[in-house]
Each structure stands twice: as structure tokens, then as C-alpha cells.
Specification:
about 280 residues, about 10% strand, about 50% helix, alpha/beta
Length: about 280
């Protein structure tokens, strides 16, 4: 899946060329997709346990899943359905909102560095440092010259993470304009989902073309060998969940963590234990 969904480094990106309702490389239908996602659970949990076990012997490797996408693209749903396949005690989940006054007093990557997973953990960012080149660009919150420097800062930051043993999996959940309207209407028409609806979502929707351009720039300038971007079609929730799960599985298999060997005499310990 990784080569199929990966954004080539340094090449211009046209999101109109990606079908948000597509299912590249995926199961044939929803039922097959849900079943395939469920079958991944045992393998993902096993690799997660080995990753954590390896960290107890000094292995610094870990995984960071970065989820970005327009409102209703399914960042929270992905956390629920995909990250839910892991042992929660080994996951570090952070949802980034508007910066606090304290965070605004620091460089934009400061709050990101504080939330990184520790060795052996799987970290999940619901939104991330990319907000500082997305909404910041669309709403003109900082000068364009500063925005240009931020792309380079992000690339250096992510390269330093990769050098320190972090497998950075950046996923853009690509939802279509019409599908977003349907999902917002579902929230509006269901009183039990009003808590998820914000009238400001309508205003943000009016800036759709500007956001698409901002994402295209981020994907083009920040898809690197150290931390590539992956575009996951998100109109079909079952495919979104399967694809993100598959990407995580492939990255964990690439890490291939192993249980560390014990630094004690097994036979001697067994004999002592049996004598108690």
C-alpha cells in the first residue's frame, strides 16, 4: 500500500487527480473491508507488543501517525477504529487545537515536540504542526515569508525524528466536497451529533479551494524520504480505516521489532523458583 498511496518527493500535487471515493489496492466492498481490518488486529497488536518490549532493552524506535484532513474527513473515526486495534497503554494520542497563550509564546514546533511518543510507543496526532502552514496560510495568520521558512523547518524536524528512530506516517485523509456536505448535514439533522457541529464549519467550507491549495503545497514541499505523505481516499469510511491500518502494519513490519533476550540464567531461575 505504501508505494500506491505515497506522494512522490518534490513533485507538484494536484488533489483533483485523486479520487476521494476510490479504493486503490483495497478489498472489493465494505463487508470485505471491515473483515480485512478486523483480521489485522492480531498482527498489529503482536508487533506493538514487540516494539514496546524492544524498548525495555534500549531500542529507541517508535511510530508516529500524523492525521490531517478537512473537517469530517474522519480523523477521530480513524483513531477510534484503527488505533483501537492496539493496546491503548502503548499509545500516546494528542489532538491539537488552537494554540494556547503559553504555546503562542514558543516556536510553533515546541508543542509538537512535547507530545512525541516515547521509545516503544505508537503516537497519534489528530491534526499537527501542519496546521501552522495550513490554516495559517488560508487565514493569513503569519507573513508569507515566514510560511516559506516553516516548510523547511518541518522537514528538518521530521528528519531529526527519523534519525532518532521515529517512523513518521503522515496521512492526508482526502474527502470530497460533496461528501463533506453530506456529513455536515448528518450532524445538523441529528441532535445527538450537534456537539460535533460548529456553525463556523460552514465558513471554513467556503474556503475549500484555498485549503486544497494549502494542502497541495504541504504535500509537495514536505513529502520526503524521511517522512513521506500518503493520500488516503476518505469518502468510504471502511476503506479509510483499512488503508490506514494497512499503512501502519507495513511500517511496523518494516521495523520488525524483536523480543529482547533475557540477561539472566533461565535454568538457574527456574530451579530457584521451583524450590520456593
Amino acid at each position: 500500500m505504501s508505494p500506491l498511496l505515497r506522494v512522490p518527493s518534490g513533485e507538484p500535487v494536484d488533489l483533483d487527480a485523486f479520487d476521494p471515493g476510490g479504493t486503490p489496492g483495497g478489498p472489493t466492498d465494505k463487508a470485505a473491508g471491515v473483515a480485512a481490518t478486523a483480521r489485522m488486529a492480531e498482527r498489529l497488536a503482536s508487533l506493538q507488543e514487540r516494539l514496546y518490549a524492544a524498548s525495555t532493552a534500549g531500542d529507541r524506535r517508535r511510530v508516529l501517525l500524523v492525521l490531517q484532513g478537512m473537517d469530517t474527513s474522519g480523523k477521530g473515526g480513524t483513531v477510534k477504529h484503527v488505533v483501537g486495534l492496539f493496546n491503548p497503554s502503548g499509545c500516546r494520542i494528542k489532538a491539537f487545537k488552537a494554540p494556547t497563550p503559553e504555546e503562542r509564546n514558543h516556536p510553533f514546533l515546541w508543542r509538537i515536540a512535547k507530545a512525541l511518543p516515547q521509545p516503544g510507543e505508537i503516537g497519534i496526532f489528530d491534526r499537527s504542526h501542519y496546521e501552522d502552514v495550513l490554516i495559517a496560510r488560508v487565514r493569513e495568520l503569519v507573513p508569507r515569508s515566514q510560511l516559506g521558512r516553516r516548510y523547511a523547518q518541518i522537514n528538518r524536524f521530521e528528519k531529526s525524528l527519523a534519525d532518532d528512530g521515529v517512523s513518521v506516517v503522515k496521512v492526508f485523509l482526502h474527502i470530497g466536497y460533496a461528501e463533506q456536505r453530506e456529513r455536515l448535514l448528518e450532524r445538523l439533522d441529528n441532535p445527538e451529533k450537534h456537539w460535533k457541529f460548529n456553525p463556523g464549519d460552514i465558513e471554513e467550507r467556503s474556503a475549500w479551494p484555498a485549503y486544497q491549495q494549502a494542502y497541495e503545497l504541504s504535500l509537495e514541499r514536505c513529502s520526503t524520504d524521511a517522512a513521506p505523505w500518503f493520500v488516503v481516499p476518505a469518502d468510504r469510511k471502511w476503506y479509510r480505516n483499512w488503508a490506514v491500518g494497512k499503512l501502519l502494519l507495513e511500517h511496523l513490519e518494516d521495523i520488525a521489532p524483536q523480543y529482547p533476550k533475557g540477561d539472566f540464567d533461565v535454568d538457574e531461575c527456574r530451579a530457584r523458583l521451583l524450590a520456593t
